[in-house]
Amino acid sequence: MSLLLLPLPQLSPFTVVTSTLRLKPLSSLKPPRSTPNSTLSISVSPPTTDSNVTTPKKVLLPIGFGTEEMEAVILIHVLRRAGANVTVASVEPQLQIEAAGGTKLVADTSISNCYDQIFDLIALPGGMPGSARLRDCDVLKRITCKQAEENRLYGAINAAPAVTLLPWGLLKRKKVTCHPAFFHKLPTFWAVKTNIQVSKGLTTSRGPGTAYMFALTLTEQLFGESVAREVAEFLLMRTDDDNVSKKEFNEIEWSVGHHPPTVLIPIAHGSEEIEVVTLIDILRRAKANVIVASVEKTLGVMASQGTKIVADKLISDVKESAHDLIILPGGTAGAQRLSKSRILKKLLKEQNSAGRIYGAVCSSPAILHKQGLLKDKKATAHPSVLDKLEDGAVNDAVVVIDGKLITSAGLSTVTDFALAIVGKLFGNGRARSVAEGLVFAYPKK
């Protein structure tokens, strides 16, 4: 499969780039193989929009207990990357919620504060019981019904079309799709088994594995095809199926004993939220024991596109622990902050010395390289830092495994990366099962 490998532009997180590159139509892009509240001290600049646009597009994204974190965060990240002003609103009494896979997210505001606002788009993530929590929120119901009545855009993914929109009467005479587990609930005549379905202002989709295409389809409706293409390029989305997805060198078994493997994911202000959350979600689905540790002074971090994530522990709380696997998420600012953590440096050095597994995605393989942990190893990374890996750089695969090292180009390819970890730790059978739950095409080989 060929990738759109473009240099990472040195721009504001919300800047939309225009390009003269000739790309395939957006329709040809494939989905990627697809605690108390803490003070968050980093501010996020408002989105930069095109000079011809007088006001930014406003998007409402509601979340509740049990919301599917991959879907919520991919929507937030992609739409903000495109230039939308995304409001994440909690339907719960508090702003912090625990998502379906255990990720702790903090909303920007309460849904009650959104009642009198007008949004260009309302996008509902799925998950259970998250979709039911959205359904039972009377304020959200009234906001969304008004959105539909006034012919403004709305969308839903996973269980939300069947569990949330159907009881509200918002699927009438519209072709819709949803997660296979809830497909039987849809009206038979109007139900379609497609990954994306657009029908009279309503866009629906199937699950986490189709969330990138769902978000890009909504982006195209808000901003046009050229912006959607640019965002797809930035995310390293594929355009066809003729490239090697994964390469493995010095193949060995990853044996961690009979206990559930422990995985440490350190995070910082500026970490890429789609990488952090995808790793957490997929590895926990596979029944790994995932610990999210903040290298900041607080549990709460502000990710690259403004998503507020609350870690399970501080890095100082895990400094004496041994972990079967340590994975570094990317994000330029986040990787820089991770590289300054003395405790994390020590943990990585011990991980290598003990012959345990470690890895990194996006810009973070540069951290491993700087510490000498890529010596005589093959690895990949985001195109903007790939040349820093020198002789060991691999540029024709989105996931590279070398012994007990695993790396990835990051962003949308992190789904491949996380499933490759599941395959190595638990076998291809479990990886395939997790992929099916995501509605994601797991490689046959």
Quote the average pLDDT. Answer: 89
The main sheet comes to: 8 strands, mixed
CATH architecture assignment of the largest domain: 3-Layer(aba) Sandwich
**Cα separation of the termini:** 14 Å
CATH topology of the largest domain: Rossmann fold
Structural class category: alpha/beta
- Provide the helix percentage: 25-40%
Topology (SSEs and partners):
Blueprint (H helix, E strand, L loop, with lengths): L57 E6 L5 H14 L2 E6 L5 E3 L5 E3 L2 E2 L10 E4 L5 H6 L2 H12 L3 E5 L2 H6 L30 E4 L2 E4 L5 H13 L1 H10 L11 E4 L12 E6 L5 H13 L3 E6 L5 E3 L5 E3 L2 E2 L10 E4 L3 H8 L2 H12 L3 E5 L3 H6 L28 E4 L2 E4 L5 H13 L1 H11 L7
Parallel strand pairs: 1-2, 1-6, 2-5, 6-7, 7-9, 10-18, 11-12, 11-16, 12-15, 16-17, 17-19
Antiparallel strand pairs: 3-4, 4-14, 8-9, 13-14, 18-19
Describe the fold and architecture:
The chain has 445 residues and is of the alpha/beta class. The chain folds into 2 domains: 209 residues, Rossmann fold, CATH 3.40.50.880; 193 residues, Rossmann fold (3-Layer(aba) Sandwich), CATH 3.40.50.880. Helix content is 28%, strand content 18%. It contains 12 helices and 19 strands. The strands form 3 sheets. Strands 10-18-19-17-16-11-12-15 form an 8-stranded mixed β-sheet, sandwiched between helices. A 7-stranded mixed β-sheet has the order 5-2-1-6-7-9-8, with helices on both faces. A 4-stranded antiparallel β-sheet has the order 3-4-14-13, with no helix packed on it. Helix 1 packs antiparallel against helix 7. The two termini are 14 Å apart. The N terminus is likely disordered.
